[in-house]
Amino acid sequence: MENNLRQVQENYARIQDKIAEAALQSGRKPEEIVFMAVTKTVAPELVNAAIDCGITLLGENRVQEYQSKKDAYRQGVPVDFIGTLQSNKVKYLIGNIRMIQSVNKLSLAQEIERCAGKQNLIQDILIEVNIGDEDSKSGMTPEALPELLKEISQLPHVHVCGLMTIPPPTEDTRFLQAMQELFLKTKELQIPDTDMHILSMGMSDDYAQAIRYGSNLVRIGSALFGARNYQK
Ligand SMILES: *Cc1c(COP(=O)(O)O)cnc(C)c1O
Fold it and tell me: Which residues contact 160 (CB under 8 A, 6 or more apart)?
């Protein structure tokens, strides 16, 4: 564990440097980019080590894993939900999670509306976009996005803050670029009661590139914590 803690510290410092460099290259300040630590399969001790380094946002993929680990995390650090979310599990997140980044259909937004309304709070969300139009991935198609946004913007307890994507793994940057264009276009629509200011894009393999294409929130797991072990 000692070794692992040191590794996390080293990884954190290296990633921060790369984030800063990419931010400056794209004409922004390093502090405008949010570095989320993705915690799936990671022991709470290591997550807390990342928090001690300066991580200010955690990302969770599975409701059950989140529930079993959240009390062991250093308190006061917000958690976003980034995984595939079934409607029947929404109720466990509302009131606990800062933002649900993986809203991929209207019915899910409607369930968030119902649960948030019950607790009398407004839930921040991102819309997940399937920018590569892959059958294997969830998310809205770019074409369907404006209509969906208009419908979701009508829900009084749901607040759209931007877009999230997991682009197909390719060497070239066309999906990052397509996503940047879509984000800017959607922003220009100025749909009332939406506030498009977050582009959540970039993981361990492509975060520096993603920042160059306008991302301001990168979700990093294995580059920070090491390869995941799903056996445990
Ligand atoms: C696992 C995961 C990440 C982090 O992936 P790494 O390649 O390990 O950085 C980011 N976003 C989502 C939605 C994930 O499920």
Answer: 125, 126, 127, 149, 152, 153, 193, 194, 195, 196
State the CATH number of the domain containing residue 27: 3.20.20.10
Distance 203 CA to ligand 1 centre (A): 6
Whether 230 maps to a domain, the answer reads no
pLDDT (tens digit per residue) in 52-95: 999 999 999 999 999 999 999 999 999 999 999 999 999 999 99
The number of distinct structural domains making up the chain is 1
Nearest CA to ligand 1 atom 12: 82
User: For residue 64, how many other CB atoms are within 10 A of its CB?
Assistant: 10
Instruction: Determine, yes or no, domain membership for 21.
Output: yes
Q: Which domain holds residue 184?
A: 2-225
SS (HEC) of 21-38: HHHHHCCCCHHHCEEEEE
pTM score of the predicted model = 0.96
CA–CA separation, 36 and 226 (whole Å): 15
In this structure, is residue 8 part of a structural domain? yes
118 Cα: distance to centroid of ligand 1 (angstroms): 31
